[in-house]
Amino acid sequence: MRLLMKGNEAVMHGAIAAGCRAFFGYPITPASEIAEMASLLLPDVGGVFIPAESEIAAIQMLFGASSAGVRAMTASSGPGISLMQEGISYMAGALLPGVIVDVQRAGPGLGNLGVEQGDYHQVVKAGGHGCYKTPVFAPNSVQEMCDLTIHAFDVADRYRTPVMVLADGALGQMMEPVTITTSAAPEPEKPWAVTGTAQTRQNLITSILLEHEKQEMHITGLERTYAEIEKNEVRWEEVRTEDAEILIVAFGISSRIARAAVAMARAGGVRVGLLRPISLFPFPARRLRQLAGKVYAILVLELNNGQMVDDVRLHVAGITPVELMRRTGGMMPAAEEVAEALRKMEKECVGNQA
Amino acid sequence: MWEIKHSRSASFYDRFERKGGNTEITHYCPGCGHGVMQKLIAEAIDDFGIQDRAILVGPVGCSIFMYYYLDVGNISASHGRAPAVATGVKRARPEAVVFCYQGDGDLAAIGGNEILHAANRGESITVFFINNGIYGMTGGQMAPTTPLGQRTTTSPRGRSFEVEGPPMRMCELLATLDGPAYIERVALTNARQNMRARKAVRKALRNQVEGRGFSFVEILSPCPSGWKVPPEEANRWVEKYMVPVFPLQVFRDLDHSDRLPKGIDVSKGGGIPFAADPPVPAAEAPEGGSVARGTIGEEALTLSGFGGQGVLFAGMALAEGAMREGLEVTWIPSYGPEMRGGTAHCHLRLSRQPIASPWISRPTSLIAFNQPSIGKFAHAIQPGGLLLANASMVKEVPDRKDIRIVRIPSYEIASELGSAKSTNMVMLGAYLELTGAVDQESILAAFVEKGTRPGMLESNRRAIEAGRRAAVEAEQA
Ligand SMILES: Cc1ncc(C[n+]2csc(CCOP(=O)(O)OP(=O)(O)O)c2C)c(N)n1
Ligand code: SF4
């Protein structure tokens, strides 16, 4: 059954389908509808919603529920995600699964409520302290707000790590038809959890390891997990890359603009394809390198000051020129402008080398 | 006379294997109050037979390693956040006996907000607050509870009212809230007071076992190392310098068993609000052009007006109807502070193909509810497109020959129908008539599914149909 709903609502329907039974949240535009839906829906499935006193507390309540072996989540926007970084680091250190949704707005500081993707660095590069990472999935449709939230729960439990869903105000507020899906994997047993039973009494959830050797072993273990994640959990989407001479790379909502631009540029005879990273960590590095070897130039489109472009340049490693097109502050590039940039790029690069 | 048990409780590990080094003795300094308190807690857990159900949420501070000693479920929280963590644990596992153990830096300084709100929610947890007037673990810095005049490494001239402010009394503070069921302050000063502390610890845990609500015990406790006094003088020091600032008393003793916060109810765990369908790879794209009966294949519609005119709702209703006809749809609003009294607009795309960008820079149609909308969007309408204006508020339309311009006095029409609020439905009806984008019955079916009351449904139908007639008349004129 297709239902018309906001991206923020789809997140919560997905979460409940995935077995999420606790949500802790503090209101912030443009993420608040997730908490509102949680407060509406969770009690009907025996779940709990708590309006936390702050994002600092919300993430720690998530820490607690997750320690007790329950699928739980929180959601916020940039300013709140900044406050949650403490808890996310502790969760990563204590090997606790959990899902955190960032519905980005424009910043820094209070910024405004416009659509921006300026949290890429703080979310993808682990904004908290210490040696850790979190898997990050970036939806680009309301359907994916649901699907990737479900997927985030599966990945979180599989690797015992917090997982982030990086959305933005547009995805949160826009409506599209959605089919509510279910978890791909059954919720695993959690013998490590502290549940108040004889079997789990000797369990300990902590992130402190005073001895340096043990801390290093712990971090090496985390690195091994991240290597597994890089092997198994890379996701991306390609549009018309088969014969592409120019590649545009964009994630999240800007990939929708890129997609429109690809269609426009193609209509004008420019052979352009889109690579959309869906997982930002792990980054689809191998595929990007392959494509970089085939195209003459790459355009990165972002709604920020150029953050993912760092990763693109890192993996392209100079074999193909990489240019950045971006808007910030809630400003939106028109698809026509992006198509024009692609045409220009083709003229310059393909013309020269052909 | 009561004295501390030397035989270890079952809830107290015999050997502290997690500790490393000497596994026979605790890591606390001689004369420290932490060891005493933790034994009192272990003893109560034994006596109530709750060892398996007990979960300790530990602090950051000297007692962070309490899990070396207490053989119960252990979770170590970040600095000050134990009450938030415990909230998550208790709500997830209502059967567990969840207790926090926090120092004064942890609870009163960095964690001030978390304890305040956990107490105010009346969480069914127990909190032990070890007030030693100092930051022990980091080497004796000033805490919010340090008495006036006391020298610490960060108040080397002695704490003063003027510079650092006076000490905070947490029991008194929490007692201003309705949430807590039980609040008491005790002190580890002499055998008699230790006995009172023991009683308070037991009561606070028993309260949770019996479901009586949030319990909070503050314990004035010696930290000879932090205070730089000999261990044997530390208890007297508590009596002399702390008790006068922090009076020993019961601040609250109530039974909140009729108002406990709700935890997860596993018996309800099965139901999911919407029947979950198996994953569908792609939306069923309708064959041919039979779906939308009009001429529109790719509609890019902007609706714009004042907040409160029902602009966003009209767009949403159209989107619902279109979805029911098998079209792909995106609806994206302007949102944020604009919604309060300012302008409101939304972009709506209807297509038989998957939709790329939800934004519209060149609309095929504009529904303008007010004059500013004309200035903002009318110039961008594609040649051959439609401008549908609410003539009740739009006095001037652009001089464009390449677009179709239709004006409808929707406010007057709606008022005649007796519901001025239906202006948006009148406009929607006119739009349906002019474009044939979606069947009005699809939209009304969506209203029915959403539970719109019959009266309201009828009123919407009348408004839509009046809009259609007005559109026909306007075209003929
Ligand atoms: C966010 C953060 N800030 C600072 C610290 C350093 N720190 C560790 S323990 C502590 C003070 C603990 O004092 P208290 O709560 O009074 O407990 P005590 O050691 O006296 O038992 C501080 C500031 C920390 N671990 N985390
Ligand atoms: S520093 Fe103070 S609180 Fe910490 S163990 Fe020593 S005496 Fe106890």
Distance between the termini of chain A: 50 Å
Category by helix and strand content of chain B: alpha/beta
Strand order of the largest sheet of chain A: 3-2-4-5-7-6-13
Number of domains of chain A: 2
As for the CATH topology of the largest domain in chain B, it is Rossmann fold
Strand residue percentage of chain A: 15-25%
SSE topology string of chain A:
EHEHEHEHEHEHEHEEHEEHEEHEHEH
Total count of helical runs of at least 4 residues of chain A: 12
Q: Name the CATH superfamily assignment of the largest domain in chain A.
A: Thiamin diphosphate (ThDP)-binding fold, Pyr/PP domains
User: What is the number of beta strands of chain A?
Assistant: 15
Shape annotation of chain B:
elongated
Observed structural traits:
heterodimer, A: 354 residues, alpha/beta, Rossmann fold, 7-stranded mixed β-sheet, 19% strand, globular, B: 477 residues, Pyruvate-ferredoxin Oxidoreductase, domain 3, 14 helices, binds thiamine diphosphate, binds iron/sulfur cluster
Structural features, described:
The complex is a heterodimer of chains A (354) and B (477). Chain A has 354 residues and is an alpha/beta fold. Chain A has two domains: 2-194 and 205-232, Rossmann fold (3-Layer(aba) Sandwich); 237-353, 3-Layer(aba) Sandwich (Rossmann fold), CATH 3.40.50.920. Helix content of chain A is 43%, strand content 19%. Chain A contains twelve helices and 15 strands. Chain A has helices spanning 7-17, 32-41, 55-67, 78-93, 120-124, 142-159, 169-173, 212-232, 253-267, 285-294, 308-316, 335-353; strands at 2-6, 22-25, 48-51, 72-76, 98-104, 136-137, 162-168, 175-179, 204-205, 236-239, 246-249, 272-277, 279-281, 297-302, 322-326. Chain A has a seven-stranded mixed β-sheet, with helices on both faces. Chain A has a five-stranded mixed β-sheet with strand order 10-12-11-14-15, sandwiched between helices. A two-stranded antiparallel sheet of chain A has the order 1-8. In chain A, strand 2, helix 2 and strand 3 form a beta-alpha-beta unit. In chain A, helix 3 (55-67) packs parallel to helix 4 (78-93) and helix 9 crosses helix 12. Chain A is globular, with a radius of gyration of 21 Å. The mean pLDDT of chain A is 96. With 477 residues, chain B is α/β, with parallel strands linked by helices. Chain B has two domains: 33-269, 3-Layer(aba) Sandwich (Rossmann fold), CATH 3.40.50; 298-476, Pyruvate-ferredoxin Oxidoreductase, domain 3. Chain B has helices at residues 33-48, 82-92, 104-110, 112-121, 170-174, 191-209, 224-227, 231-242, 311-324, 371-377, 410-416, 423-435, 440-449, 454-476, and strands spanning 54-58, 73-76, 97-103, 126-131, 134-135, 141-142, 182-187, 215-220, 250-253, 299-306, 328-333, 343-351, 365-368, 386-390, 404-408. A seven-stranded mixed β-sheet of chain B has the order 2-1-3-4-8-7-9, with helices on both faces. A six-stranded mixed β-sheet of chain B has the order 11-12-10-13-14-15, sandwiched between helices. In chain B, strands 5-6 form a two-stranded antiparallel sheet. In chain B, strand 5 and strand 6 (141-142) form a beta hairpin. In chain B, helix 3 (104-110) packs across helix 4 (112-121) and helix 9 (311-324) packs across helix 13. The termini of chain B are far apart. Residues 1-6 and 270-296 of chain B have low confidence and may be disordered. At the A-B interface, strand 1, helix 1, helix 3, helix 4 and helix 7 of A face strand 1, strand 2, helix 2, helix 4 and helix 9 of B. The complex binds thiamine diphosphate (TPP) and iron/sulfur cluster. Iron/sulfur cluster binds next to helix 7 of chain B.
